Amino acid sequence: MRFFNIFKRRELDCQEVRDVSSDFIDGDVSDKQKARIAFHLERCGPCTAFVNTLKATVELLRSAPDAELPARFKQRIRDSLGDQRV
Ligand SMILES: [Zn+2]
Question: From ligand 1's centre to the CA of 86, what distance in Å?
């Protein structure tokens, strides 16, 4: 069934979704990719939480100068992102 193989859409896994999540938030992905990510997020709570946290973080960092962020809040972001540098 070659026809179906060509058009078969492979679903993204969690790692792939997280790898592209910052591009997704920036709108820096194709419509097709966006749809695949949204499809995954509808079914995956942890990735939805990850993207929401990242989105909130990105928006906050954009709207507020870094120095004005309370240290405790930054720590919370670091904790929720798995101890990555913010
Ligand atoms: Zn996932």
Answer: 22
